[in-house]
TrEMBL record:
It holds the Pfam family Glyoxalase. It comes from the Bacteria. SUPFAM superfamilies: Glyoxalase/Bleomycin resistance protein/Dihydroxybiphenyl dioxygenase. It comes from Aromatoleum petrolei. Residues 299-324 are annotated as: Disordered. Residues 151-268 form the VOC domain. This is Glyoxalase.
Amino acid sequence: MAVLGIDEITYRAEDLATCGKFFADWGLRLVAERDDELVFHTLNDCVVRVAHPSRAGVPAGIEDGPTLVEVVWGVDSEANLATYAEGLRDAPGYSVADGRVRCIDPNGIALGLQVSRKRAVEVEGAEFNTWNRRPRVNRSAPIYERAVPIEVGHVVFFAAHREEAVRFYTEKLGFALSDQYPGRGSFLRCAPHGGHHDLFLLQLPSGKNGLNHVAFTVRDIHEVIGGGMAMDRCGWRTQLGPGRHPVSSAYFWYFENPAGGLAEYYADEDELTGEWVPRDFEPGPTVFAEWAVEGGIDGFSRRPHGADAPRSGFLTDRSGETDR
């Protein structure tokens, strides 16, 4: 059996106009607009849905206010979907309809499974010249004026029932543990071979359930930077970034999302196989981020917020100097 990744997510939010502007600026493609719902696609047709609370059938969610209320995972075949359906019969909220298996996970999140509807896409990311490997010859690295996310790469929830949820995803859906904060957090990937994590469950001392963030995959670090500065120019607020996670090696930039939680651009996560041995980490600022820019980068000055704007001419030029 194989879960391939996230096929669709649904946010619940009242202010559809603001959410619509956010996701359009984020780089998603609007494919449907109704009074009570907006539907966006990523580059590979992963679905991002924003539903008004009044819309019929919107899951209850696990917290008040704007938040993520459903995650639909893509499966590789009808045969494997049927196998998952059989294994989930005893799960709360179980149903099968319209090609989708639904239930509620131990953390209270609405979960769906369907044969993946995402399409294969060809994208060209940057090539990096290192000391001993120099594939980029007679070409400049790309500069992006905005981001166009390829897909929804992972979701992160605060989970009061983290250990029970980890057992559910590993035993029922075949997920694999990548790394963990013992007793606090679990990084899970959909299959033994894949990116570092598709789901991260974080247990807070308060026992809070809720959304932390949704992460959108982009091509490379240059698109993380270009997309982040474009969002800044549009007036959206950085929570943290750009920066780099030591645990997954990924570059990140987090923004406050009016649809709930945070939205993250990320690129260059580790690729793991079944031979990977999960590691234990102790929480700390240098574990979360090897480096990070507090407050983001100003999209106009191309410098951290509060820094002096660059001047025209060479940076080495000094006012009042004359050639000698």
